[in-house]
Design brief:
This protein is of the alpha/beta class. It contains 12 helices and 9 strands.
Length: 301
């Protein structure tokens, strides 16, 4: 019988599930909304992950008992503090599978590099740097969540841009082309409309604020000084996190990987971060984080 393995990537912006063969060929996959329990709560997160698991099984034409192992990494639920919850979520759908709980950053590292060794820099809704050295020791910098830190991530960039818009409206900061761009994207007519939009929402607008980040990066590329300042600070913060991980793990020139929507591919942030780290071009991942979760589960035998 084919040894199918399922990988679950619960990044900040959505959940992705893949089912792969031993050769890592994808035979079924699905996507769903965010499953970060810090944002939507554990009940909603669990239901979202389980629905995506069922959809992937349907797409592959497989039954749950045909899945030998499941690797899972979810933003806001790293294995070091949420392993029990992750196992419970997965076991409800695949009770016979070997379950390997991880973290969204670890599966991204394994997917990008094809092995559990190197340094990952992630900038999506949140941000962090994570590394594993040749001895198997790991270190994490960042990943504190949008209220505490996540410097250089999408929410961090978006909220600083909105702060700049508010300060400009008061005359406490320079005028910026970000004001019409961001207010237009949000469907707002005046900077003061940001107050009810942000504070009177039924749920935190974390994802919506993070989705403003590409507009900020575009503004920086177009020459807006305020946007350029935010971009420069984001690059500094991400490079600082990466260097902190390398120092703690005593790694001189480790293989580097980028992950998250703001660093995947040729983006303004990835280009400027490459310059800061001495890279000729953004590193190209070998696999997606979801496949990385499946690979981690296979390696954990």
């Amino acid at each position: 019988m084919t040894d199918y393995v399922m990988g679950i990537d619960g990044g900040g912006s959505g959940v992705r599930v893949v089912i792969v063969t031993p050769e890592l060929a994808i035979c079924g996959q699905s996507e769903g909304p965010t499953a970060n329990p810090s944002i939507v709560g554990t009940g909603t997160a669990a239901a979202t992950i389980r629905a995506a698991m069922r959809a992937a099984l349907d797409a592959a034409g497989l039954a749950a008992d045909q899945i030998a192992a499941v690797g899972i990494g979810v933003a806001g639920a790293a294995a070091h503090h949420s392993a029990g919850w992750l196992r419970e979520v997965v076991a409800a759908i695949a009770p016979q599978a070997r379950i390997v709980p991880s973290a969204d950053y670890e599966i991204a590292l394994v997917g990008a590099l094809g092995k559990r060794e190197g340094v990952l820099i992630l900038a999506g809704t949140g941000s962090l740097a994570y590394g594993v050295n040749a001895a198997g020791q790991s270190a994490l910098a960042g990943g504190w969540g949008y209220l505490l830190d996540d410097a250089g991530g999408g929410y961090w960039i978006g909220i600083r841009a909105l702060q700049a818009v508010a300060r400009a409206a008061d005359g406490r900061g320079p005028t910026t082309a970000l004001a019409p761009a961001l207010l237009g994207a949000l469907g707002l007519h005046d900077a003061l409309d940001l107050i009810p939009w942000l504070y009177r929402a039924d749920a935190p607008r974390t994802s919506e604020v993070a989705r403003l980040a590409p507009l900020v990066l575009e503004g920086a590329e177009a020459g807006d000084p305020v946007a350029q300042g935010i971009l420069a600070r984001a690059v500094d913060e991400l490079a600082l996190a990466a260097r902190a991980v390398m120092r703690r793990l005593e790694m001189d020139a480790p293989p580097l990987a980028f992950a998250g929507g703001l660093l995947t591919g040729d983006t303004p942030l990835s280009r400027h971060l490459c310059a800061a780290l001495g890279l000729a071009s953004p590193p190209v991942p070998r696999h997606s984080p979801a496949v990385g979760a499946a690979l981690l589960a296979r390696l954990a035998r």
